[in-house]
Amino acid sequence: MSYDVDRIRKDFPSLDTGIAFFDGPGGSQVPKVVGDAISKAITQATSNRGSVTISEQNADKCVTDYRSAVADLLNCDPKGVIYGRSWTQLTYDLSRNLAKQWGPGDEIIVSRLDHDSNIRPWLQAADAKGATVKWAEFDRETGELPVSAVTNLLSKKTKLVTVTGAANTLGTRPDIKEIGTAVKANGSLFAVDGVHLTPHASIDFKNLPIDFFGFSSYKLLGPHCGTLVADPAILETIANDKLRPSTMNVPERFEFGTLPYEIMAGVSASIDYIAGLDDQATGTRRERIEKSMKSLEVYEEELFHYLESELNTLPGIKLYGHAKRRTPTLYFNFPNVKGVEIYKFLATKKINAPAHNFYAYEVSLALGLGDEGAVRAGLAPYSTREDIDRLVSALREFLKTK
Ligand SMILES: Cc1ncc(COP(=O)(O)O)c(C=O)c1O
Fold it and tell me: What pLDDT shows up at residue 1?
């Protein structure tokens, strides 16, 4: 393994600001090559997609390159890769399409550990069809979502189960393989929100018992957009509204209007970049991605232990959740201090660690944190021990002002 964070950091122009970025779970910084790819795609000869003119071919290539890059990132079929403006938009579309087949008496299962974009669209779609929603509850103390918390809710009427691949505040990584195996054995569909998981783990979609999976590139060194993936054979069974002249083919029929070719080129460049995070990775792009993501996991895990142990030295700190498997993301606060005060103090020291519910609204309410939530510090591929030392000493300084 070779993970050279100093080499990697040089690729990110925004790090020249001297800011220590702990806000990666909200959106990562972006390497220059991604910006260059977007710029090239938007300024080269471009028309609508087609095969006749060079400019049509350029646009078409942005789309096909995007699908094959995502297929390499997640090990899925490029024909099952759907572009979306965001995961929220994709979940709204998917839930409404699937709900066309639901009715009173049908059931769906959502988890309280999730970001609201993987809860509310499903609730609203179920409500519109008179279907019943069951809630899988996480353990308030540990932050775990036990497999049984989901599988105990399964019944013959369960149409769909959805859980997060990783919780964006507590970091919990539920056992999606075991949950999915039970869900598939029950004959139900299984959707996983991979937005917070994908930046931290190697994903092998074809070998997971998951029907729908998605991520947002802007959390993963890329531009602001989302992607949903599925087996194209499943997509063929889903009816959706579309314009009359637009194609019936999947995945295109789920992507409305003219696609943003330059953004897609940015996604492809970010995935190419990820493939090179480990500079000793060789082989196909998929092989290099797997190797690089594993090296990143090792790097982040070590750094995460350091972050957690250093934060634990601070008097009075309350860290929420300590699930066995977690992404390198911590959610914390201090007694009688508003998270926003800490957030603003850290900003004066060029340290980005915002405080919010981060749309994990149900988590925030369940933990008694209301709308305000707590402070979140997440690691990203460019994070360092020095960043952590700066965060901890700034927090110590803040506590002295209290
Ligand atoms: C776990 C998780 N799911 C979904 C989302 C929403 O993603 P998008 O902004 O692409 O709709 C986020 C964003 O913070 C997230 O962290």
Answer: 67
